[in-house]
Every structure is written in C-alpha cells, then in structure tokens.
Amino acid sequence: MTNPLPASVDETLDLLQRGDYVAERSLATALYLAMKLNRPLFLEGEAGVGKTEIAKVLSNTLGRRLVRLQCYEGLDVASAVYEWNYARQMIEIRLAEATGDRNRESLGGDIFSPEFLIKRPLLQALESGIDGPPVLLIDELDRTDEPFEAYLLEVLSDFQITIPEIGTIKAEHPPMVIITSNRTREIHDALKRRCFYHWVDYPNAAREQEILRVKAPNVPERLSRQVVGFVQRLRSMDLFKLPGVAETLDWAQALTQLDRLELDPETINDTLGTLLKYQDDIAKIQGSEANRILNQVKAELSATPSL
Predict the structure, then answer these.
(1) pTM assigned to the model
(2) Angle of helix 25-36 versus helix 51-62 axis, rounded to 10
(3) Packing angle between helix 25-36 and helix 9-18, nearest 10 degrees?
(4) How far apart are the first and last CA of the chain?
(5) Residue 202 half-sphere exposure, CB side, CA atoms within 13 Å?
(6) How many of the other CB atoms lie within 10 Å of CB of 241?
(7) Of 46, 60, 106, 290, which is most buried, counting CB atoms within 10 Å of its CB?
(8) What is the model's pLDDT at position 307?
(9) Which run of H or of E encompasses 111?
C-alpha cells in the first residue's frame, strides 16, 4: 500500500527512522524539499556512508517500487534506457514475408511500435503503477562516462525520454529520483543544477553508536562503544580508504559472531580485514598501532562512561 509523502522535515525524519535509517536533520531537509518540489536529490560522499540505503528506505516506507540503475563504465542507452527486441522483430518480418499481407512501409512502422520495445530502468521509472510513481535510484553515477551524463539531462529536467522511432515518452507523475556518487570524478555542473545536493558525511560518534543500536542490536553495548571509538580514530588517520559505516557494522557483527564482549589486540589483528580493505592500511594498523589506538579508546571510554 502506498503511503503519503511526509508533510514536513520532522515527518521526513520519522519516515527515515521507521526504515531504521539514522539521519541528520540537514539530510531530512534536503530529502523533504526534493520530494515536495519534484526535484532529483544528488547525494555525494565516501563509499559506505549510507547513500544507496536512502533510496531503499524510501521505497519500503512509502510502499513504492524501487527501480535501480547501477552505473558502470561503458553504460549505454541500450542497457539503461531501452532497446528494440530484434529477435521478435525478425520473426515478425519473416511472418509478413510468408503471408504477404503487409507492404514494406506498413511493416516498418509496425515493428517499431511500443510492443517491440524492451524497457530498461530509466524508461521503466517513467511509468506509474498501482503503487504510484516509483523511486528511481541512479547509483554511483561517477562510474559512468560523460556522454551518459549528458543523456540524463532530459530525463532529470523534464522526466521524459525521446525515442526517435516513436517520439517523446513523458512521465505522467514524476518518479522520486535519488542519484549517488562516490566522487571518484567530478559530475558536470549541468547535471548538478537539475538536482538538489547533499553531502553525506561520516557520522560522529554519537550517531554511529545509534546506527549500531538500530542496525545491529545484538552487539553488546561495551563492544559497540569500543568499535565506534576505534573506527572514529581510524578516520582521523592517513589511510588509503577510510572505513565507512557499512564496515563498522560488518566489524561489529563479525566480533559478535566470535563471541567477543570487548576488543583486545589479538582479535583486532585477526579481524582487520572486515574493517579495512587494503593491505597497506591493514599493515599500517596491525600490531603496536592497533594496541595504541585501543588503549586510547578504552581510556577515553573510562573517562566518559556513556555517549
């Protein structure tokens, strides 16, 4: 069942909380305005901070279909927008030749009709179902090429797609569009101008602790606080890839599976691969450095019993 859109920033915060998403008010404000004014929301930030999850939460809490376009290098119109069903067109041509009931001009018009069209994510997103307009997630746009960005301009500004053989297909009700980027390259200003923008940053310790409580309630409180303190300190270091919230959750749950109630140097060294994804980073932290960070975290938590 489709749920109504939130009528305020506070209701948007409540909506995200119902989907177990712990959000800052600034994010809820950007999301509320994007929904209210039918504008795409462009979310930029490091990998693993929860950008993609926002679209999933919206789909679940609003009861709308999620249409996801996962971007990659070389993504083209045939994979993202539409292509013609060539096999079916060939069969139609053979049947027409065998029966001789249509001339060449009428056949050409018939095989380039909507029934021969294979709809890919962007075209699917322009169609409203019984549950209303979908949530369109264009994930990791920075992985695509600039020509594909240019193609998106018509979709994002007018919510329409032009197919030369058919004409322009326009959404009766615009989809809710979430675009994410890990900023591996800069996105062109022309695309950004068509969107509202929000930078999704790493959470502070209090919010990350709350995320753990919501997403991993089985993690013991003492272990959770130590994990968050350790990860927060790692993010202040010069590492090739800082751990995101996703890695914090993975590490906390992995430690719980090992029946750990608190961190110790040996366990940290054995499980760093769930937190850090590059060997140079792991080698930099393992051993004495991990022990030093752990001692600092424990001392800080002893001085501050609760967050």
Answers:
(1) 0.90
(2) 60
(3) 110
(4) 38
(5) 19
(6) 14
(7) 290
(8) 46
(9) helix 104-111
What's the farthest any 2 CA atoms get from each other in the chain? 89
Q: For residue 54, give both structure tokens.
A: 């926002």
Residue type (1 letter), 263: L
Contact (CB, 8 A) for 44 and 200: yes
Residue 48 in contact with residue 243, Cβ under 8 Å? Answer: yes
The answer to whether 180 and 138 have CB atoms below 8 angstroms apart is: yes
121, 75 Cβ separation under 8 angstroms: no
Residue 123 near residue 161 (C-beta atoms within 8 A) = yes
Q: What are phi and psi of 201, to 5 degrees?
A: -95, 170
Give per-residue pLDDT as tens, 8-59: 999 999 999 999 999 999 999 999 999 999 999 999 999 999 999 999 999 9
The residue among 119, 121, 111, 166 whose CA lies nearest residue 141 is: 121
**What pLDDT was estimated at residue 98?**
75
Structure tokens at 143: 């992985």
Nearest to 154 by CA among 59, 72, 30, 40: 40
